[in-house]
């Protein structure tokens, strides 16, 4: 586990906060597992942690950098984190259920699978990756999980390396790899920065989106990365995967209810630049209508109570 950042709070003891008119809630510490450098998970996780710290002004709220989805799930299972971000497909097991001890607070936003190459690289389809050196994303990330599935279904043999988003962008720029997969919200910082410096393009994955949806019903949605997202890059068909905010199942119901309320009532603050952080455009997607849609991952009782209250 990488070192975390304390967003705010007291150094010891519990704090008390009213929870939507309910009995007071005692909270000592919340640890939110985020993602790697250059990733939307790192930015949106930090933003959500800041909102939670405001909601619990005397608590200690800590962001825990990670390799993303699978790493975050493992930290939750080990008790090394209380909250964590994950792509929906990575948290659903072979039986269609999440690991024991993990529940969902909500769906947040959708990630898009990017297959990035420099403009003059002779890769025009997934089949063209055969024999090439390709980044699968960081080890234990959602990118690695989804890319494994996609490449296996395509029957392509590649020289796979594990690099996070920032490292993948650097390796593309230097020619150390031919292509990079990245499952992330749009726009993602590492790809935006690369597009500003080099001519890049995305490889279409319309066929692979259908194959994933057929082989693993539920988490995969055919989608298009719009032409307006990255400088000089055309619209490209791909596959999208929802992202969810997870919690340990034993996290106090009142705490989870207050965190869920904070996400949906204040996430709009993340869409504009703040003194301590740039805007997180993906926060525009956070809304109650889609937030309850966590697939086969059961809602934490505290989150379920909050969503039910919105229907009254």
UniProtKB/TrEMBL annotation:
<protein>
    <submittedName>
        <fullName>TAXI family TRAP transporter solute-binding subunit</fullName>
    </submittedName>
</protein>
<dbReference type="InterPro" id="IPR011852">
    <property type="entry name" value="TRAP_TAXI"/>
</dbReference>
<dbReference type="Pfam" id="PF16868">
    <property type="entry name" value="NMT1_3"/>
</dbReference>
């Amino acid at each position: 586990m990488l070192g975390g950042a304390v967003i705010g709070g007291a150094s010891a003891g519990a704090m008390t906060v009213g929870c939507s008119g309910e009995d007071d809630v005692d909270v000592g510490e919340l640890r939110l597992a985020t993602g790697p450098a250059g990733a939307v998970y790192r930015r949106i996780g930090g933003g959500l942690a800041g909102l939670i710290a405001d909601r619990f002004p005397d608590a200690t709220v800590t962001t825990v950098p990670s390799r993303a989805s699978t790493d975050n799930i493992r930290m939750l299972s080990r008790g090394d984190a209380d909250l964590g971000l994950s792509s929906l497909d990575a948290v659903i097991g072979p039986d269609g259920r999440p690991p024991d001890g993990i529940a969902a607070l909500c769906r947040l936003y959708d990630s898009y699978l990017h297959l990035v190459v420099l403009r003059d690289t002779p890769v025009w389809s997934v089949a063209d990756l055969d024999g090439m050196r390709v980044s699968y994303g960081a080890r234990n990330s959602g990118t690695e999980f989804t890319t494994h599935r996609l490449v296996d279904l395509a029957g392509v043999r590649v020289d796979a390396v594990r690099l996070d988003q920032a490292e993948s962008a650097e390796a593309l720029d230097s020619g150390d790899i031919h292509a990079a997969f990245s499952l992330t919200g749009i726009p993602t910082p590492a790809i935006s920065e690369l597009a500003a410096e080099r001519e890049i393009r995305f490889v279409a994955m319309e066929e692979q989106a259908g194959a994933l949806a057929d082989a693993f019903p539920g988490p995969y949605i055919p989608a298009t990365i719009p032409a307006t997202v990255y400088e000089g890059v055309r619209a490209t068909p791909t596959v999208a995967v929802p992202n969810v905010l997870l919690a340990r199942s034993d996290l106090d119901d009142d705490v989870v209810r207050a965190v869920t309320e904070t996400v949906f009532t204040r996430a709009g603050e993340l869409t504009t630049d703040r003194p301590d952080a740039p805007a997180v455009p993906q926060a525009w997607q956070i809304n109650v209508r889609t937030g309850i849609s966590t697939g086969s991952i059961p809602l934490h009782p505290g989150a379920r109570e909050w969503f039910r209250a919105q229907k009254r």
